[in-house]
Amino acid sequence: MPSPPARPPLTGETLDSLTARLQAQGEPAFRARQILEWVYKRRVTSWDGMTNLSKPLRAWLADTFDLLPATLVLNRHSEDVTDKLLLELRDRSLIETVIIRAPQDGVGLDHSRKTICISTQVGCAMGCVFCASGLAGLKRNLSAGEIVAQLLLVCHSEDARTPRARLELASFDNLVVMGMGEPLANYDALILALTILNAEWGLGFGARRITISTSGLVPKILQLAEEPLAFRLAISLHGATDAVREQIMPINRAYPLAKLLPAVRAFSATHGRMVTLEFILIADVNDSLEQAKLLRAIALDLHAHVNLIPYNTVEGLPWQRPSITRQERFADVLRAARISVTLRREKGHDINAACGQLRLQTETARAAATPA
Ligand code: SAH
Ligand code: SF4
Fold it and tell me: Which domains does the chain have, with CATH numbers?
């Protein structure tokens, strides 16, 4: 017997699409707002929690929609203020969502500023040679509902820690789309999800506090510049010449620097905001002073912020991070030109490789536990 079609996630619906479904059911239009308020503001975790809806309506909703298409299977809280949430989707795929806590002013001890890192695909097709997420290729895109569900699950876990967080809009400060997957390769679902997060009937989360990181899909960068919501952009550069970038990022063959850099310039011209250039430092690959000087020229030309990230080793891959002295020397070349540069060292703040590795370990353990 064919299995029944999966119910679409409620978290993928907009106010308009939900209103249309309810009206077709003979319900008044205002029901959609009531339901979305239960989901995003009051953050109930069951249909029965929606106490101002009739029982038959709750039953219809339960038959029609999946309330939350992901389940928390593991929360790895590390002493360095990172929470890694491993989530299981309905098809048993695993994704990671990470909460990074930092002081409000960047230096204190309170750790109350929260940045959430979300995934947009299961795996990744881009094949960057240093990255854990792409090791097994792309399994599938996430739906908009699955992307939104990651943030709701974060809110639920934060609500449990501080119940007061509920009814305030989102219980985090910044959102970075830097988890597993290439966000711009799943463009429509990404934009729909971020629109739901931003909407006043959703989490009401400001577009300016959302950063999308891309390996450099040029046509999609140009499309993103035209979106009505002004998201921030981070580019995974990782090489200041085509020769170096091509060695580690296959996408550079389709979109070399001569195509990528003008697209980034066009994006910042439209937005009037600084773009971030991410540069992982990998020993003997891209950490020479010559690369630093070329990166300096690119950053000056684009008026970009540079985020230097010491490489996080991945089991099974040969790449290493350079020594601290070498990292500092690289950073000094940029600092000397008064470029805005960060070089992160504390583990908890190093979000960039946080996603992807926990999933890899769990997939490996699962494969080992399942008889062939
Ligand atoms: N696919 C997008 C977003 C996800 S990756 C992109 O590539 O931008 C987020 C960031 O983590 C990217 O800059 C990526 O290059 C970096 N990254 C991947 N593996 C890493 C590792 N092992 N150590 C440090 N950074 C890593
Ligand atoms: Fe994909 Fe980004 Fe990893 Fe490259 S770095 S394989 S684009 S997730």
Answer: 10-64 (1.10.150.530), 70-369 (3.20.20.70)
